[in-house]
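Morning run. Coffee first, then this:
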Amino acid sequence: MGIKENCEEIRERIVKTCKRAKRNNSEVKIIGIAKGRNTREIREAYECGIKCIGENRIEEAGIHRKELAGISEKIEWHFVGHLQGNKARKAVEMFEFIDSVDSLKLAEKIDRVALELNKRQKILIELNIADEESKSGFSVNEIEGAFAKLIGFKNLKIRGFMCIPPEPKTPEDSRKYFIVMREIRKKMESMHTIVLPVLSMGMSMDFEVAIEEGASEIRIGRKLFE
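And here it is:
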């Protein structure tokens, strides 16, 4: 199938899942993951209604944005990869959302750059939901203390949380991690009297389970472009 057919199938599955979960499908945003994709593919996805694009690499994002002159400003750009501190300035300049803030050190760097650029940067806090050594992010055990510090950064607008669970053998394998994500969001909202509308979780393999557990954003790459 092509991108158009893939989009249609994904949306049909979202509608069915939301109906089953008694949710409105308008509550679920698709982030098209553009890692390794060319500009033609991103343009086609945009023309099929994918208005949010996630980029893993600063350099690749710069090429895409330049080649998409004319529609780039209409796209909601998300940085979703591991962000090195020395590239924080570029990320703040280029992206509406930085979805992968994985440490207090990085948050401090982004906050400082945002102040210099007179911007309040929208971010998501990345959780290492299964405490995997190969992945970055705040652990479940440390997020409570870290969040109390994160909300002190005046130039950051915390929108919610993001996670990438261990690669599942079946979609159901991810459910327990998504439940923990939802519970952490609820606890932080209650503790700090704050609204955190975004739960970014679920990918091509398990996005339906994520939606059932409250995902507001799903990140789709392979299922969208292949």
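The longest strand covers residues 156-163. Good start to the day.
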